[in-house]
Amino acid sequence: MQYQRESWSSYIEARRRVGTYECLERIERLASENAVVIFSMSSCCMCHAIKRLFCGMGVNPTVYELDEDPRGKDMEMALNTLLGGRSATVPVVFVGGKLVGAMDRVMASHISGNLVPLLKQAGALWL
Amino acid sequence: MASDSLRPRPSDVQQTEKRRGPGAASERTPDAKAYVQQLESSRMRLSQIEQDLQQSQAQGMVLGGSSGFGNISQGAAIFDMEYARWLDDDNRHMAELRTGLQAHLSDSDLRMIVDRHIAHYDEIFHLKGVAAKSDVFHLITGMWASPAEHCFLWLGGFRPSDLIKMLISQLDLLTEQQLMDIYSLQHSTQLAEDALSQGREQLQQSLIDTIAIGSSSDGMHQMAVALGKLSNLEGFVHQADNLRQQTLHQLHRIFTVRQAAKCFLVIGEYHGRLRALSSLWASRPRQNLIGDDGSCQTTSTGLQMLQYSGHNHLNNF
Lengths: 127, 317
Fold this sequence. Notes:
Largest interface: A-B, 19 and 25 residues
Strand order of the largest sheet of chain A: 2-1-3-4
Largest sheet of chain A: 4 strands, mixed
Radius of gyration of chain A: 16 Å
Oligomer: heterodimer
């Protein structure tokens, strides 16, 4: 982030950071309310893929479509911050209230066999 | 590659004539003139087909291994070159694995060879990642792969669950734990493949909807939207390649050193045979150029080609 000399820009920046913080809080809260939470966008095909993955495993994830949320844009930016500034923000997955990550991380954890124990621990899978 | 397969190799026809011997044509076929006429008409048909091919290429249809627009992108050309070099390296690594297994090396020595092999695979995934950024179409359409591999392509490469299925049938002496791990890996890759395939299907549908809609006044906007959607393809190829890479790494973890060496040998030979199959298919003689008893000639010529071929992996065929 670049700090502008104009005070208006730095004011906007400060407001944005506060907004991001509020969104992060909201994300944390939503993530802790269900075993598996996916932040998605209805038009995103990778999000569709990740939903199919969890359904295929017999898991019923709670999905928040950010493009249908009035604060969706801010949520997106907050998730971006959480993930360390990625180009594609969604999908983002939380299991048991903890961040698993974007598609990369979820897939890697799935293939290495780490995802199922996490899901069982969170009570999303019983078999 | 498509045009090559349509042109008759002069050597094939000469071989057939040589085998028959001079004057044998008049002995075996009742009407030698008819045979020659048949050859002539086939050749005319061929040149007509070639002309049609060139015409349709000019109209922008993509055929076989050549791009309809004449040139391939720079990214694609670079990747093809790198891939050719990688294939040479692959042969070297395979030879190392083979001699390593036969020589009954110690586990630590064999481990070094296997680790180098894994790094060699990591390299091609890295190269594909770079190529995807400049020309995802080249990767996803499999223009860089041999036709047989191309046939079974899934999102720009091999399908991990198919590879595992093949390995299960090839490897023995697995412990119960290993079998469980492999079946579990197979199940996971299957789920992941299905998920990615479905995501890609949705992308395709969405793209079709975008291009289908739109009055002429909205055309440019729709194209811009379509371009945006198309860029998501790169994400799918990336995930598919990640899946392939992680599957190989996971197999490496499940197996002992010797099993891993055998496993990679099997994988390499399998792909080598697919490539060899492509070459054999492309160079097979055409029946209608040979004559009535052509069927026998085709088989024996095919077998002869098997013998000529310098590829040593064909010995395992």
